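From: lab user (bench 3)
To: helpdesk
Subject: output format question, protein + adenosine-5'-triphosphate

Hello, I'm new to running complex predictions and I'm not sure whether the block I got back is the full result or only part of it. Here's what I submitted:
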Amino acid sequence: MNNEEKTLVLIKPDGVKRGLIGQIIARIEQRGLKIVSLEMVWARPEQVDNHYPKSREWIERIGQKTAENYEKYGLDLKKELGLEDPYQIGLEVRKWLIEYMTSGPMVKAVVSGNHAIEMIRQLAGSTMPAQAQIGTIRGDFSIDDAARANREKRAIRNIIHASETPEEAANELNLWASAEDVFDYHLPAEEVM
Ligand code: ATP
Ligand code: MG
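Helpdesk reply: Thanks, we reran it on our side. This is the complete output you should expect:
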C-alpha cells in the first residue's frame, strides 16, 4: 500500500527568532522525509484566521485543553482566566493564536513521505511543551504551558505547527502552497530506506 502523503509544517515566529530553523529542518530530513517546498513568510492575520479551523468542535477542543491543563496543576479556571466555558476559552485562545502567528516571520515547508502527516506530528510532540516527550522538537526546545500563556493573554509558544489529519493537511496545503512552488524530485535515499 502506498501511504505517500504531503503535510504542512510552519516554524512559528518563536522558532525562527530563536534560530532553530536549521535544527528543525535537519530533524525532518534525518527522519527520511522530503522537503518539497520551503519559504519564509510573514503571515497576514486573515491567513492565520483561515489556517486554524473555525468549527465549534475545534474551538471547544482548544478550550478543553486549557481546562485540562488548569485542572492538572490545580488552578482555578474562573479565577485565573475569568472564563469557564470551553467554547469561550477556545475563542479567546484563537485570537491570541492569530497575534502569535503574525508576530514575526515563519518558515513554511511542505513535507512529503510515507505517513508524513503522522510522522511530523510525532517529531513535533505534544501541543503542551511541558508534556512533550524528550526527543521531540517541542520536548527538546520549549518549556511553555497553557496556564502561563493564558495568564499573559497569549498563545502557547511551541515552535512548530504540523497538520494533524489528512483533511487538515489538504486545507492547509491549499491555503499556503501553490502548486508551482511544490517540487517533485527524487532522493537517492528513497531506494535504501
Ligand atoms: P498546531 O496546530 O499549531 O500544530 P497542535 O495541533 O498541537 O498545534 P492545536 O490544538 O491545533 O494544537 O492548537 C493550535 C495552537 O494553539 C497550539 O499549537 C498552541 O500554540 C495554541 N494553543 C492551543 N491550546 C492553547 C491554550 N490552551 N492556550 C494557549 N494557546 C493554546
Ligand atoms: Mg493543530
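A quick orientation on your result: The longest strand covers residues 106-114. Let us know if anything else is unclear.
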